Amino acid sequence: MKINEIKELLQQDEISKEVLEELRNDERSGVKKLLSSYDKMQEKKLFYKKEYEKKSFYENKCYNRGCKYICGIDEVGRGPLAGPVVAAAVILKKDSYFEGLNDSKKLSEKKREELYDKITNEAIAYAICEVNNEEIEKYNIYNAARIAMQRAVEKLDVKPDFLLIDAMPFENYPIPSYSMVKGDEKSVSIAAASVIAKVYRDNLMKKYASKYPYYDFENNAGYGTKKHLEGLRKYGITSIHRRDFEPIKSMIKRGGNNGQ
User: Fold this and answer.
1) Residue 188 sits in which domain range?
2) Which cofactor does it need (predicted)?
């Protein structure tokens, strides 16, 4: 086989042991390099598979107890100075597998977008909820995050049997649940929810950037970066800024609410 043909062959999902053995006996340096890359890729795939199995511990525990629809819930956007807090709820299929799924903050934008498309296409059900800056001011950011999470659950087309939640206890809630710190690193369902919430919110803030072009929302997603703070000083506060967050709260007290 020619080198290009071997390259295409090694990109296939399944290759027989006989073919691999034959290729390993090939003395050409080009073939050896291709096989080295192939072996590294297989090691990476095996690592992702094992990590996914580890992060399915809580889901498997629920399945073993007779649960059918297990919902992962996460939110994003507690810290920004502008924009809503966004929560996502997702019910994955029991046999689902999303290679490389992890806490959304640990993934590249490209990987998040790729996983977002796969998860939203393959999940049993998912829902997204925004709680805007006015409600954040009304309820405080912690309560607003919980409200967003619960509303996301209520928007699902399928009612879950059990909820796995990232660091937010649901007290006196009608569906049984388990909340865990760093849940997006420990549960595939919560990790999937974190990806959905982050991709949705990041894209939403990019849309806001076209309406409010002076705050660099397309790059900072509403967080208090240098460019964002410069925009606040020069152009004032917009309708999506959180008025109970500093330095916005102090700006309003000083009469600095001269924005858009």
Assistant:
1) 67-206
2) Mg(2+); Mn(2+)
